[in-house]
Amino acid sequence: MELDHDVREFIHFIKVEKGLSANTVDSYTRDLTQYMRALKEKQLVSLKEVNPMMIQEYLYSLKKSGKSAATRARVLTTLRSLHQFLYRENWTTTDPTALIESPKQEKKLPDYLTIEEVDRLFHLPDLSTALGLRNKAMLEILYASGMRVTELVTLEEDQLHLTMGFIRVIGKGNKERIVPLGKQAVTAMSAYLESGRQQLLKKNKHTYLFVNHYGKPLTRQGFWKILKQLAREAQISKSFSPHTLRHSFATHLLENGADLRSVQEMLGHADISTTQIYTHVTKTRMKDVYSKYHPRA
């Protein structure tokens, strides 16, 4: 069927030519599977038949089914990417998403840890064990670099440059960035490499830095389970996610005077407007401090 063929071509394009991550490709695929189902219910046989009204109706059906503005905005981004691809390739003569506005979303400030909470969390791993050395190294590297969890668990040996104090991170779309590492991260990583990793690897041979107790590469889900357990032990009650240390990295840098462009580069944000959310966090914190400590606040 032409509908399915066009989607397969698009998925091949974002996977092979654009080099998007497996997680992103999976997300696009899920969104488009549902979209195709809706179009087939309308008895459409070609994406050439899609018009702006149909896109609007589809987004409205998502709203009626309880999907959030953030989810609907993400779906529209997926549909826009698909229809722009078809238009660029001259498979269609119009882009039905061109004039459709994205659903308005509330800007939610990201949760982040205080310095004291970071210290509590980082003192938990038992450094007398290989797993403890690994957990300490992962926490220190994440907080020192602000990298995403997917970037962390796919780190390989040749990306690490401990003697020079930096790490080469491969981000979304296979874009590389160089991020400096502080002394504590270098110390924790050195200890893990010297005493922990080889114990965990056993007889396995691969270049991934972080491994599970079977010696296989650690997954995002595996890391998240470890982080949740540590957060519970550290009695961190606020909303906590794999991104929390990334948010903490950015917020603490800005609170201590780092410039926005540098933080944008270290986080690997393509657009500085994405990084600007952290300026709202630091302003909110500034107001809290002012109202708490100023005698005439």
TrEMBL record:
Domain of life: Bacteria
Keyword line: Cell cycle, Cell division, Chromosome partition, Cytoplasm, DNA integration, DNA recombination, DNA-binding
A Pfam match: Phage_int_SAM_1
Subunit structure: Forms a cyclic heterotetrameric complex composed of two molecules of XerC and two molecules of XerD.
Family statement drawn from the similarity comment of this UniProt entry: Belongs to the 'phage' integrase family. XerD subfamily.
Location relative to the cell: Cytoplasm
Organism (species): Shouchella xiaoxiensis
Entry function: Site-specific tyrosine recombinase, which acts by catalyzing the cutting and rejoining of the recombining DNA molecules. The XerC-XerD complex is essential to convert dimers of the bacterial chromosome into monomers to permit their segregation at cell division. It also contributes to the segregational stability of plasmids.
Active site location: R148, K172, H243, R246, H269, Y278 (o-(3'-phospho-dna)-tyrosine intermediate)
Tyr recombinase domain segment(s): 108-291
Amino-acid biosynthesis keyword on record: no
Residue ranges of domain Core-binding (CB) in the record: 1-87
Protein name (record): Tyrosine recombinase XerD
Residues making up the signal peptide according to the UniProt record: none
InterPro entries xrefs: CB (IPR044068), DNA_brk_join_enz (IPR011010), Integrase-like_cat_sf (IPR013762), Integrase_catalytic (IPR002104), Integrase_recombinase_N (IPR010998), Integrase_SAM-like_N (IPR004107), Recomb_XerD (IPR011932), Tyrosine_recombinase_XerC/XerD (IPR023009)
Entry-linked NCBIfam families: PRK00283.1, recomb_XerA_Arch, recomb_XerD
